[in-house]
Design a protein that fits this description.
This protein is of the alpha+beta class and 297 residues long. Helix content is 48%, strand content 11%. α1 packs antiparallel against α2, α2 crosses α3 and α3 crosses α4.
């Protein structure tokens, strides 16, 4: 899922970075990616060239974000996104222009022919005339739009730099990473009281297990972690396409689960029985037991 750009930006580091260096870093990253992509497309066979084209549409945005971070750009997600988008829109035409000029002068350089300034100006005029044709402009606009679209895949890494507090915030994590529109759809709310809760059970085929007061979470691709149930300060109820996030007193993520997974309802009842509060995306507590009221408490 693409990273949101409208979340809060609390607790920014004291050194907020430089707008100018951020713009420069984003441009250098974007132009490096665009030049590499255009060069590969020009010299590779058709099939591999197409693959390089689509790959370049992804790495141009990624390199622009990486360049922004490397040169310590201004720590504002909105400004960083604007800088990256501007860099991509500028880098793609400049890259195409340079590739066209380079293809004209390369045979002369290889033959040892000296290129005088007037010839270089003529090559530049010819390349510019080609790029300003209507068909070229449409193709270039399409390339820029594709690159801008794929740049959204890199917003997460950019947000981690510009606003680390919001990047790790359980309220943000509850809105991303799910598996479809009904992945985390509430089965019922408030939760019905449980007749009995077993001492041991697992959720989602063992990704989350309960053993008395001990909870173990096994995140994909990372070591499992265990923690006592009394360490859970609350649970953020995620959107239907996201996750429910367990967090501690420092508002750090402890574990996550989705209502569509096996025994998820039982786990919710387990947390309710231990008086763990459930909150909405604004951090407002919500009623968890069916006692005639289901709104905020």
């Amino acid at each position: 899922m693409a990273e949101r750009s409208t979340g809060p930006e609390p607790g920014l580091p004291k050194k907020k970075g430089s707008r100018l260096l951020g713009l420069l870093g984003a441009f250098l990253g974007a132009i490096a990616g665009a030049l590499l992509c255009d060069w590969l497309v020009s010299f590779l066979p058709d099939d591999l060239g197409r693959l390089a084209f689509f790959g370049g549409a992804i790495w141009v945005g990624w390199l622009a974000c990486w360049g922004y971070r490397l040169l310590r750009g201004y720590r504002s997600m909105r400004f960083a996104q604007w800088a990256v988008r501007s860099a991509i829109a500028l880098a793609q035409p400049l890259s195409l222009f340079w590739i066209l000029v380079q293809r004209k002068i390369q045979p002369m350089v290889a033959a040892g022919i000296t290129i005088d300034p007037e010839e270089m100006r003529e090559f530049c005029r010819q390349s510019l005339a080609f790029l300003t044709k209507w068909d070229s402009l449409k193709a270039m606009a399409c390339l820029i739009l594709i690159s801008l679209f794929f740049a959204r895949l890199s917003w997460g890494g950019l947000l981690k730099y510009t606003d680390p507090a919001w990047y790790h915030d359980p309220r943000r994590l509850a809105q991303i990473g799910g598996g479809g529109a009904t992945f985390n759809m509430l089965p019922c709310w408030p939760l019905p009281p449980a007749e009995s809760i077993p001492a041991q059970f697992s959720v989602d085929k063992g990704k989350l297990t309960v053993d008395g007061s001990l909870i173990t979470f096994k995140p994909w691709g990372k070591p499992s972690r265990s923690f006592p149930a009394d360490r859970v300060a609350g649970v953020v109820l995620g959107v239907s396409s996201g996750f429910n996030i367990l967090y501690d007193k420092e508002h750090r993520e402890l574990a996550r689960f989705a209502w569509s997974r096996k025994n998820a309802l039982l786990f919710g009842q387990y947390l309710t029985a231990r008086n763990v509060p459930f909150v909405d995306l604004n951090g407002v507590p919500v009623a968890v037991q069916a006692e005639g009221r289901s709104g905020p408490v």
